[in-house]
Design goal:
heterodimer; A: 118 residues; seven-stranded mixed β-sheet; 11 strands; B: 113 residues; mainly beta; six-stranded mixed β-sheet; globular
Chain lengths: 118, 113
């Protein structure tokens, strides 16, 4: 089946630093990737949708300058949390969809990245 | 607009007992509905999906769900719970023009020996 790899799985860093999270589709071309955020014991909230080669579309309330998304290739999207602060600590999950993706098709999720800002 | 409501944030069953996890949806367009399972510190694994074909959908690990339009429901069931079923379960909806998923708040399933 389709495999999505997310890296790193866990990162701890100091307040004020920037952190980059990678999401790779290993065996298919992901024209669309979604980034979700999950707070402890809560559901997943969509942050942004990225399409290969174009700017990401951010959900209302998500700061685009804070959460930089790059989807430069068909197998890689990155989320950079800039100048991270403790309130950015969360579980970040990406999902990927292949070409001709329609909303009735399942997305393929990565294993998530737990980000802890000290 | 779309939304999903999962009734019961925690459900506890005995091993071998029936599992019933409830999901109600709201959608202004014909919905596509999904159930995902999440184990601790992991991503989401698809259990099953409804995409306007058969209303009774069978998924992996003996899970199934029935789409009931009149009740706007898509409840997840399994005849006999295993210890390995203990996890967080999410119901999600998408629809024409909205490819991203809208998730419910999740239900944590506990399986008692």
């Amino acid at each position: 089946g389709a495999v999505v790899s997310q890296h790193p799985s866990w990162v701890i860093c100091k307040s004020g630093t920037s952190v980059k999270i990678e999401c790779r589709s290993l065996d298919f071309q992901a024209t669309t990737m979604f980034w979700y955020r999950q707070f402890p014991k809560q559901s997943l909230m969509l942050m942004a949708t990225s399409n290969e080669g174009s700017k990401a579309t951010y959900e209302q309330g998500v700061e685009k300058d804070k959460f930089l998304i790059n989807h430069a290739s068909l197998t890689l999207s990155t989320l950079t949390v800039t100048s991270a602060h403790p309130e950015d600590s969360s579980f970040y999950i990406c999902s990927a969809a292949g070409q001709n993706f329609y909303s009735n098709q399942p997305q393929h999720f990565g294993d998530g990245t737990r980000l802890s800002i000290l | 607009a779309q939304s999903v409501t999962q009734l019961g944030s925690h459900v506890s069953v005995s091993e071998g007992a029936l599992v019933l996890l409830r999901c109600n949806y709201s959608s202004s367009v014909p919905p596509y509905l999904f159930w995902y399972v999440q184990y601790p510190n992991q991503g989401l694994q698809l259990l099953l999906k409804y995409t306007s074909a058969a209303t009774l959908v069978k998924g992996i690990n003996d899970f199934e769900a029935e789409f009931k339009k009149s009740e706007t429901s898509f409840h997840l069931t399994k005849p006999s719970a295993h210890m390995s079923d203990a996890a967080e379960y999410f119901c999600a909806v998408s629809g024409k023009g909205r490819r991203a998923l809208t998730f419910g708040s999740g239900t944590r399933l506990q399986v008692q020996p």
